[in-house]
Every structure is written in C-alpha cells, then in structure tokens.
Amino acid sequence: MRKEEAERVLEGYLKPVLGFALRRCKSSEDAEDLSQEIVLKAYRALLARDDVEDAGKFIWTVAHNALCNYYRSVPKNVIGIPVEEMEELLACPEAEEENEEAVKRLRQEIAYLTAQQRQIVVAYYFENKKQEQIARELGISAGTVKWHLFEAKKELKKGMEKMREASNLKFNPIKFTGYGINGSPGDKSPDDFFRSVLPQNICYAVRNEWKTVNEIADDLGVSPVFVEGEVQYLEEYGFLEKQKNRYRINFLLEERTTELLKAEDTAYKAAAALYADALFTKLTESGILESPDIESGYKADKNFLMWTLLPYAAANSRVKPKNTISFQEVATIRPDGSENIFHASVGEPVTPEGYVQMNNWCGPMWNATEKHTLWQIGSDWSDFLKHHEFWTYQSDSVKIMTLYERAQTEALSRDEYAWLAEQGVIRVGGTAEKPEITWQIVILKTPAVREKLLDLEEKVRNTCADELDKLRKAYSAAALESIPQNMRRAKEFELQFTFYADGRFLHRCLWELLESGKLKLPEEAQKPSMSTLLLVN
User: Fold this and answer.
1) Residues 6+ apart with CB under 8 A from 33
2) What's the farthest any 2 CA atoms get from each other in the chain?
3) Burial of 396 by CB count in 10 Å (0-12 exposed, 13-18 middle, 19+ buried)?
4) CA–CA separation, 493 vs 475, rounded Å?
5) Over the stretch 18-75, which tens digit does the pLDDT of each residue have?
6) What one-character-per-residue DSSP string does 393-435 give?
7) Which end of the chain is more exposed for a tag (fewer CB within 10 A), N or C?
C-alpha cells in the first residue's frame, strides 16, 4: 500500500484507537504509549502489504495483539484489572497465561452469574458467537442478549472487586448422622436426595436464614454451578422452600447435643418405667393372649405375641394428646407421591452414660386395604431390614394384605407363596404337591379383640397420664430450643405424640422389659415375622 493511502486509512482510526487504549490501560500514559504502538505497527504493516481487504478489521487485529503484549508487561493484580480488560484476556490465550491468577478469578466469577447470563457470556466471549446468533439459539431478541451482557459485566465487576469468604463449611462440612420420615414414602428413597455431602451442606447452610444460590456457594466454598442444580432439585421435592431468589430449609434438621440427649434419655427412661411394666402386667393378667381371636404361627409363645401386641397397643392409645396439630397442616406433599415430614440430625455429641441407642429402628408403620390394616415396627431385635426395601415397603404391604385376603378363599400360586415366605410372614411346610401354609405374623381376627386390647391400654395410661404429661412438657421445651421458627410447628406436631406413637418410646419400653427379664429375646426363626400385626378394619 502506498504511503499516502496508509496515512489516509489510519487518520480515521487515531481517536478510536486512543479510546480503545484508554479504556484498557491502567494510566493515560500507558494508553498513549499503547495507541502509538498500535498505529505505528499498523502503518508499517499496511506499507508492506497490498492484500488488506478490510482495513478496519486489520487495524483492530493489530490493536488486539498489541494489547496482549501490554498485558504481559502489566504486574499481576487480580483486583486491579478491570472487567473490560478481562474480556480481552479471555480472548487472548497468550495474555491469559501471563495473567493466570486474574483469569482464574474471572472464570470463578462467571459461575456466579445467572444461568442465562452465564450461557450468553460463554457463547459470546469463549465461543466467539455474534449477538444475533446467540439470540436465535436462545429464542430471545438481540436486544435482550445485549442487555444480559451489560448486566453480566456489572456483576463480574462487583465480584472481582470483593473478596469472597467461605464459611466454616468449606473446611469442615457437616454430615447427617441420621434421617427418616414421618408419613408415607414415595417412589424415591431419602438416599436419592442426600447420598452425598453436597445437598446435606446446602440444607445446613440455609437452616436458619434465607440465602441465594451464590451465598450458599460462598458458604460451601464451591462454584454456584455445582449448587444451583442441587438447590432446584431439593426445592422441587419440598426439602427447600423458595422466596424470590432465596432459599430456606423446609424439613426438621436438628443439631444433637449432649445436653439434649441427657434430657431425652431422662424423660424416656422415666416414662417407660411408669408405663411399660404396668402394661405388660395388664396384658398378661387379662387373658387376652389366650383369645381365640388372636392367631399366629407362634400363638403358643406368649413372649412372641407380646413383642407385637404391647407396642401396637401403646402406639394406638385411645387417650389422645390435647390441642392436636393435624398431619396435613405440617406435612409436605412431594412429586414422587409421598406425603411426610422429613427429619435429619447432625452432630455427634458425647453420648451420656446409659443412653439407649435405636439401631435399625423403623416405624411404627401401617398401610391398609379396604378390609385390613398391616401394622409393623422394625428393630435390631427383628429381621425387618433384611426383608423390606424402604421405597417398596408400602406396595409390599398392600400386596401382603391382598394375598392374605385371597388365601382365605383360594390357594395361591407357588410363586406367591414363595414371595410371602421371603417377606417372613408365612412358613411353608408339607409337600410340593400339598403345601401346608402357616401365617406367622400376629393376626387380630375380629374388631372386638382389638377393642379389648385398647381398653386394657387405656386403663394403664390413665393411671400415669399426669406424670407422663409432665415429662412430655419438660422434654418438649428442651427439644424445641434449636428448631428454626419456620419448622417449629412441624416439630410440635411430632412432640405431641411423645410417649404415644413415637418410635423412641416404643423402643425404650421394649428395652426396659428386656432389662427386667419380662421380655425374652426372640428365637432366630421368629425374627422375620415379629412385631407385625394384621387386623380387620
């Protein structure tokens, strides 16, 4: 290109090039030096070439390369480099290597943008797509893309100017020490939601206050990209609740302390001592264990019957707590068909001396058909967990009742008998041609015998009702102290059943009777069917 033509081309770019440099350099002196370097390099290149078709594109390429060289000479300072310069870094691999720390911070901050802003920023700066192309691919207007890029730049600038501080969760993540449900299970197990520590720590981070995805990510010291999907999943299934763009826990997450364990153990030990021995004696002396309306393959073994009848009577007492809160008022209906209160605990406090652990405890649980109800608890003393999967228990229970009802009028298939035997509810004898079927679970054949059982329990409970109520109030006050305000109603619902249908009370009653020698450990063959009751509705 001739000298006069090159000078004429460059004359129109002198001010734009200076403006380009001023926006990207740390000082006006640096900007002047850079703009002069750009113009000089472009001038020399234009003189040496005759194949430049687009002079503007050529000059800005020279400008970009000169800027990359400038970045190499700039001292690395993460906070000091403005976002406008960072845009150039993203598009300049050579400069990126020289400013590795700064680029790393920028990439981290991109993760704190909204999902759509992040998608647009990546497409525009990393994939070099035009705004119009991005708009077409996302089904939005080019103006909206431009607005998102503008907003993203503001957010990136704010992020680059602050120092993000992770909470203690980054270094000492919590882990649930136990969890369960009060209500009906659905198609999903709790493990589907809380198999890893990430969702557990997300919930812990918002146990007491509303937080955004970015605030949760800061607490955990991870990228929001990893948090937002988990948060949406937990919110969809009701474990988190959302208010605008903030989230808060929506289940009972209790921090166990040694003091609370002491209060719990004191209350339950005293309650079981008041109640369990008295109920055992009442059932034994009443003659109900010999009733022809109670059926079982182990009918002659009163110890086996007591393992079922005593906890069932305690859990289904006619003496109800006052000022009851309904289950529907506090339960969460989840997309997998479940309706329940989920609760979890954290912390591993020092266990008080003599504290009784609940190992492998499940229940009480019950399911019903039109004609029958199946009631059951599982524990270390039974083989419940060997025969039932959490997420299929409800359907399995209905199947047991349906097969029992059919078996009263017709023979079942070999496969159906085999399945019932696997569940531990029948024992198969005889021959393959003529099997002899014995139902091993406890069956209450008439409503009358159930009513007699509950009559006996009512008399026992009425004798110690005032003492139980005092113990309940003292323990409830201690248990509510650490519960966030939004979940107190759900906790109060559960506490109203303290010393009634709550599993710890039933467990402690059985433990006390074992300790006193009134109950004996079941035989190995009895474990699959123990503490399982079928009754007529």
Assistant:
1) none
2) 120
3) middle
4) 14
5) 887 877 776 777 788 888 888 888 888 888 877 777 888 888 888 877 876 776 565 4
6) HHHHHHHHHHHHHHHTTSPPPHHHHHHHHHHTSEEEEE-SSSE
7) C
| Cis peptide upstream of residue 528 (ω within 30 degrees of 0) | no
Neighbours of 481 (CB within 10 A): 10
Helix axes 55-73, 83-90, angle to 10 degrees: 110
Strands 252-255 and 240-243, by their bridges, are unpaired
Confidence band, pLDDT 50/70/90 cuts, at residue 160: low
Residue 442 tokens, joined: 């406890």
Q: Return d(Cα 513, Cα 530) in angstroms, integer.
A: 16
Encoded tokens for 483 = 């519960």
Give the pair of three-digit tokens for residue 382: 């039974």
Between 514 and 106, where is the model more confident?
Answer: 514
User: How many angstroms separate the CA atoms of 91 and 248, rounded?
Assistant: 39
The model carries a pTM of 0.64
Phi, psi of 177 (to 5 degrees): -90, -5
- Pick from 18, 5, 6: nearest CA to 44: 6
User: What pLDDT is attached to residue 191?
Assistant: 87
Phi, psi of 332 (to 5 degrees): -105, 130
Model confidence pLDDT, tens digit, residues 235-292? 999 999 999 999 999 999 988 888 888 999 999 999 999 999 999 999 999 999 999 9
Alpha carbon of 258 to those of 184, 212, 465, 484, 530: distances in Å? 31, 33, 28, 19, 33
3 state DSSP class of 333? strand
